[in-house]
Amino acid sequence: MKRGQKWAVGLGIAAAVLGATWLAVAWWLPTDEELATRLTAEAEERLGVKVIIGSAHWALLPRPVVVVNDFRTRQAQPVVIRQLSAHPDLRVLLHRQLVFEQIEIDGAVFPYNSARAFDVKPGASEPDASNGVLLEHLEFRNLTWLSYNGIAVAYDGEIDFDPHWRPHHVELRRTGVNPAFTLTLMREANTDRWQTRIQVGGGTAHGNVVLKTAANGAMHLSGQLAPHDIEVASALSAFHRRSPVGGRGSGQTVLSADGNSVGELARSLRTRTRFSISPAMVLRFDLDKAISTLGKEHDGQTALQMLTGQMDTQNTDEGMRVTCTDIKARAGNYTVTGDATVYHGQIKASGNLDLVEGAISVPFTLSGPVDEPKASVPPGFFAGAAIGTAVLPGIGTAIGARIGSTFGQLFKGGAQQPVAPKKGAVQK
User: How far apart (Å, rounded) are the C-alpha atoms in residues 361 and 245?
Assistant: First the structure.
């Protein structure tokens, strides 16, 4: 047989094999309508909620792909995916199993209140993760996370996976944010340890995280970060949050979480940060004005020489709880100490305002919405301050205020009303 004839026979055999493969795959894969129906049933079985799929389409050339459009759950706040493109591994697909080389999500909304209602179940036909990587690469654009309180934050990102769903490389970004926010994780060899690199608020928070898995499958996540030179107000603004203070802060953070799944780890995540901001600025509150007007006016800002404390965060089923303790701040002749808790958009705080190098210590409380908290002091404070001023201006104000504050607490506030200082009296 001549060389040209051999090539012709070889090409003919290859064409026959490819044709048979095409027919086998085409026979197994359903029509677009059947595919949408199958995917809907599978999603409802996996998630435990009703699902609607606008359309679904599959193709083998130029690259195997399954495209799902307008996916949404039937919930008060639906989980929505505008478009999902999945590229299966054709070799595994021929064995009627799905292993994906890449999945791309373009436009999605994940409300926390809806996602936590999922009752996720593994698929009966899902291949054993120990045999390889079930998904090699995940990429998403404009994926919006809607918090418990309704705050929407959109992300772009990508994840490369190793076996057992271990992330090999992760990158998370906030688009359109300046200064930029990026989070990068890099796995150390084949260990369950990742180097963490975070850029936020013009500063950094680098560190590492470690995952330990018990014999029964229970997981424990721990880690350390070193926030450095982060502009606090800018960092929170990147996530559509308003900060009560400004200034560049640094500190040390430890984090931990426990659970039997990635979802449980995320829901139980807690952090503890010792921080220092120097100098700092209290935004939307003028301490001098509040004191000089007996609390009637306080719009403005207060410059602080320093602000230190400890901040603990705890993820819960109803959003994040933030607790600040051992807060210490200095502004000129004033020092403030106290504690505060922020939860469900409300703040509860209490502390002491010290004036004249500790000659007077005024207890105070803050409560109400984070954006507009109400401040209060014992009713006897202002009355005592006025009496003291009449006796001895300046020093008398401090002494009288302390006396008035004490009596105000003893009589639980009674019906005492603020009394304005006499004209010309020193009010600090």
Answer: 23
Its pTM surpasses 0.85? no
Residue 7 pLDDT exceeds 50: no
Higher-pLDDT residue of 258, 133 = 258
Please, which pLDDT band fits residue 193 given cuts at 50, 70 and 90?
A: very high
CB 99 within 8 A of CB 134: yes
How far apart, in whole angstroms, are the C-alpha atoms of residue 166 and residue 393? 69
Q: Are 289 and 300 in contact (CB under 8 A)?
A: yes
CA–CA separation, 303 vs 245, rounded Å?
10
Residues 199, 319: Cα–Cα separation, whole Å: 24
Neighbouring residues of 60: CB distance < 8 A, sequence distance ≥ 6? 22, 25, 26, 90
Place of tokens 């064995």: 95
Integer Cα distance of 425 and 314 in angstroms:
47
Q: How many other β-carbons are positioned within 10 Å of the β-carbon of residue 122?
A: 7
Closest CA to 418 of 392, 393, 387, 373: 387
Selection from 185, 214, 182 nearest residue 200 by Cα: 182
DSSP state for residue 164 in the 8-state scheme = G
Question: Helix 380-391 to helix 395-410 angle, to the nearest 10 degrees?
Answer: 150
Specify burial of residue 87 (Cβ count, 10 A radius: 0-12, 13-18, 19+).
Answer: middle
DSSP string, 336-391: EEEEEEEETTEEEEEEEEEETTTTEEEEEEEEEESSSPEEE--THHHHHHHHHHHH
pLDDT at 114: 87
Token digits of residue 224: 């350390």
Q: Is the pLDDT score of 340 beyond 80?
A: yes
Q: What angle do CA 101, 105, 107 make, to 5 degrees?
A: 170
Tokens representing 78?
């639906």
Phi, psi (rounded to 5 degrees) for 178: -135, 120
pLDDT tens-digit readout, 11-57: 444 444 444 444 445 545 678 898 899 889 988 888 888 999 999 99
pLDDT tens digits for 280-338? 998 888 877 777 776 677 788 889 999 999 999 998 888 889 999 999 999 887 888 99
Annotate 244-285 with DSSP letters as a single string: SEESEEEEEEEEEEEESSHHHHHHH-EEEEEEEESSEEETT-
Distance between CA atoms of residues 380 and 67, nearest Å: 70
